[in-house]
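Forum > Structural Biology > Help requests

Title: Can anyone predict the 3D structure of THIF-type NAD/FAD binding fold domain-containing protein?

Hi all, first post here. I have the sequence for THIF-type NAD/FAD binding fold domain-containing protein but no way to get a structure on my laptop. I'd be grateful if someone could post the structure tokens.
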Amino acid sequence: MAEEVSCLKSRLMEKEKEIVALKDKLAQLEKKCLTGLQLQEKVTTLPPLKPKAVLSNEDIMRYSRQLLLPELGVQGQLNLSQTSVLVVGCGGLGCPLAQYLAAAGIGRVGLLDHDQVELSNLHRQVLHGEDSQGQPKAQSAAHAVRRLNSTVECIPYHLQLSPENALQLIQQYPPSQL
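Reply #1:
Sure, ran it for you. Structure tokens for THIF-type NAD/FAD binding fold domain-containing protein below:
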């Protein structure tokens, strides 16, 4: 009987190790899936945004308050969905900017930052949370924006704006005809 108990304890310990390894693997996969966004470490050419002919029922519900504004209306909302904006810096100013752009229904938001999230950022950089410490700020911000509005295309760039990449980056986000 003691031998059988010892054998069962040994098997249990092996299974517990397997569970720990599987939990670690799951956590890594969830982290990748949660972001669901390919972090850009170089500038690549983006395809144009697909035009929207009409607003969906979900769009009408989501943007109902701003659709009532005579200055915006349905055509203005459709124009917003065709607009691209590059946010340079995902810190104290870039975070609320990206948040409001996504909430308004901008079609594409590029998020450019070369830094990583630190605990000392969290009190003023509202898109980042404790769980995103150590992540690139662009990726953390993109994840938060996607949680807020999944219809907005987010492109996180883990880059520093430089004379070598500025023109190519900015050309990806042409001025709007609003």
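The CA atoms of residues 128 and 140 lie 6 Å apart. The mean pLDDT is 90.
Shout if anything looks off.
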